Amino acid sequence: MKFGTKVIHAGLGPDPQTGAVMTPIYQTSTYAQESPGKHKGYEYARTQNPTRSALEKNLAALENGTHAICYSSGLSAMDAVMRLLEPGDEILSTNDLYGGSYRQMVRVHQVYGLKPRFIDMQKPEAVANAITDKTKMLWLETPTNPMLNILDIKAICDIAKEKNILVAVDNTFASPYLQTPLDLGAQIVVHSATKYLGGHSDVIHGAVITNQPELAEQLYFLQNAVGAVPGPQDCFLILRGIKTLHLRVERSCQNAASIADFLKNHPKVGKVYYPGFEEHPNHEVAKRQMRHFGGMVSFDLMKDEIDKAYTIMSNTHYFTLAESLGGVESLIGHPASMTHASIPREERLKTGLTDTLIRLSVGVEDQEDLIQDLDRALASV
To answer: Is 195 a catalytic residue?
Structure first.
């Protein structure tokens, strides 16, 4: 089954009771039982819900996994993965990642004994050299947020396999349309489904996909025991969004490539971060492991003046100044004060995340309108 068919049909079918083509929203908290312990596979909606089950089957198919487990947000999905570890275990992660992921590792799980460590993972040999006997998990994010570095998933997974270390990949920026980390050796894939999977900026959701039955069993237990589950309406919205995932991401990638070229040649723009450029340090890796180069673009101004960066971000029309990404609408954001404010400034600067860095989530609008919008905003400074 090809990807465009998977998003619409994988794990799904008409409702057996009514023939409804779209998965119904089972808005119920509990289910009738014929006798104690005898039921139709559903007991209590925290534990199981038919709408959620349909989404989980669909997500597993999209990532070429065997199990998907849904959560109420991307960070609750990440939290479940962190709980697979024990106090004293070390998590080795990239030093350029979403601020919320950094905050959870450092300010939540570190308090309870986990040991996060952040390194530049762009060179697999650096990862190999950083692993210790306490390292139990590698947490990858690729493309990274917001510097858009590309990590070589297969090379890193090969290293981890030799040392019996779990690899979890945050695939939010790419989506399963662009890359499938389980096929490259990872055991766990994590999504903030709020972003490209949902695609319409109208729901908060998270998911973990794996091809390891024993990990799936642990994650299902945590889903039920901790209770950070999505409601059926949220699951329905993600299912609805997934049906156009391939169309939306394809258009977003096309728009992003043109916008990156425009910014690269603009006299007021300094460095543009976009893995589609041949001079990008990880361009060859991106070509090898991704279908396209993604819908995200980051850039700095020629002059490091924060007031001018603020003026630009406040003077766009089609690019909305807002957090998040991956929706049909284009967004413009300031990572230093928004998505990455929880990371200490000195740590941000080490990765190139300056106070004037601007991040674009390129939507599916008309390409010319988006470029003209940015051109007008740049002309305001």
So the answer is: yes
